[in-house]
Design a protein that fits this description.
774 residues; 6-stranded antiparallel beta sheet; alpha+beta; 24 helices; globular
Amino acid sequence: MVESRTGTSGSARGRATTWRPGTGAPAWIWPDVRGGFAGGAAQRLFGWVLADVAPGRLTPWLAVSFGFGTVLYFAAEQEPALWASLALAVGTIVAAVLIRHRPIGFPLMVGVAAIAAGFATATVKRAFIDHPVLPAVAWNVDVTGFVEVREERERSDRIVVRVHHSEGPRLKEPLERVRVSVRKGTAPPVGSFVAFKARLTPPLDPLIPGGYDFARAMYFQGIGASGFVLGAIRTAPPPTATDASLRYAVAIDGMRDAIDKRIRAVLSGDQAAIASALITGKRDAISTAVNDAMFISGIGHILSISGYHMVVVSGIVFVVLRALLALWPPGRGPIKKWAALAALAAATFYLLLSGAEVATQRSYIMVAIVLIGVMVDRPTLTLRTLTVAALAVLLLAPESIVHPSFQMSFAATLAIVAGYQGGFAAMRSGVDTPLGARLALIGAREIVGLMLVSLLAGFATMLYSAYHFHRLTPYGVLTNLLTMPIVSFWIMPAGIAGVVALPFGFDGFFWRLMGAGIEWMVAVSVWVASLPGAVGRVTAFGTGPLLIGSAGLIVLGLLRSPLRWTGALLVAVATFGAIRTPLPDVLIAPDGASFAVRTAGGRLAMLRTGSDSFAIQQWLAADADARSAKDKELVEGIRCDDAGCIGRLGDGAIVAIARRPEAFEEDCRRAAVVVSTRMAPPDCAALVLDRAVWQRGGAIALRHVGGKWEISAARPPGLDRPWARGRPSAEEAPASAVPQRREPRRRGQRMWSRGIERAARAAQYLRNSPTILP
């Protein structure tokens, strides 16, 4: 409400306050509908709304609005102008200040300002890191620079190089950073100045329309190209002094390497790799079989240092140090606050040592707020803590909003915090009763709490796991019950003790102890992964169900009145939309090297012309297909000869893959779709998807519906972002650069000429895309 005051000048001033208890809403806001059933329902609804907009209840929606603004930035087809984004943010903030006395307009305008601020933050971050991106494949590129990141993987190593100088025949502008693969065991240490020749390729586009954008992720990491080293990689004296950021990276990587080498000297195989992942964050050397088993069984989150690890590390330090300080004589001072300070220092060291990923940053901010609250005698495990953590992460890394790590981490934390403030509080009500004491002796509360946490986190992350990884974990609760106590009270304490004892040379015992616990964890995950129905595969769906489901989870977590159950309705709608998402009939990889056709059996028959099977793996996962990329059955349904291949859809339509020029004559006459890595003749009567098409639109998906083709492209016409530069406009593109059905030419016309009519049809297609072709 607004209280009016009269100052000394006689002018009225307004001050925004909340409604006094018992007074209800002013009559000028809510209509008087107190009679009958409708009136009672309306009054109850108004009461629920007032409860959810009570003082402090709207604060978490700031982070939601800020994140929505960031999502809008990534949804734009063209790169937003920096000045326009900043002007919008400043204007909305000023407007919010000007109407701060209005009880309804002010919170609404604050929400709009938060959306504009999120949009502007992402725009500023993009402008700050702006760098060149390689537009096309470049061979024999000479590169010199400093190694910033080194990753040890199962079959090879990989380094990120800050480029000092680059030169190549197809290199139009110098790159700032490149990521290249090297032979196993040959990666130079971080900080080394290296020189090598490399084959560089542009960052990988989405492998399916609507799929994960690898190019966008690499762009915000400052990487403009990827590839592999040709020949030997050489180290040389640096021509310039290293800066502070590189010296910091060298120091941190040196500590991580020292711990990693000591762990591997005591342990071996996956035990060493997992132990190193839990302590240093280096999880690239874990074998594929064990990594898959852990994710299938539902404990893959253990491998990513996040809130759980931060809480365990800081909690162990806090409890141990507080117990030791309690041995001091009376008058010892605020030992609880000293223990909290030491725990904060330990969490900070763990953050730096582990590489400071997004999930680790979020968890560190939350743990830091809780520990600071202990030091200032304030309760802090609230939704406001989560709000501050989300805003801090989005301010530093707005691009994390589209990353699965951010989405799953905050979804799980929101569910747990909301559950703690709601249902978990009821678990503490009967602690002082005789039954409660007996249950406490057998650890019933801890077991129930662990089950509830697993259920809440599993439910909250289910949507994002299905969207990004196309799988669910039916036995996740079982696996967490069998492994998390071992991780909490055995593996992590042994790891912390190993780090503390390492400088003194007594760490070997603790690494072996840690390895024994890891052996149990791996055995459980492999056993659960082998159970019937352990792999819950889900077909790919679009961003619509993802956004609706996310809104539902947010409503369920933030509202306290019965209105929160509208969130469950939104989740149900999202689930229905995801299930009803139609599957593609034809898929083409961004480089045109892999093809897939849905046969009469309902499964995809796949063919690749190169050795890279990554696109095939992604397509199988998106189709909920259990086959592997090396399965020989993948080609069943496609018949090939030297000139090309053909496959039949379920409705009998023929999809032809032309390998040689002589295949076009027959394919264009008989097939409904002709796919080729070559340029097709302009008089082809079929729908043509040749080299010009997939070079222009990236990965392409087709659906045959009612005799017509629905076409989706990963890079649709009009898209022009720094990580996905737009292709030539419709007027500049040749007629063959767009998928279309071409009319046969009259006899006597030249087969390979391009007429004005085809260019006009190409321009019309691009203006109206996406379209449905007959």
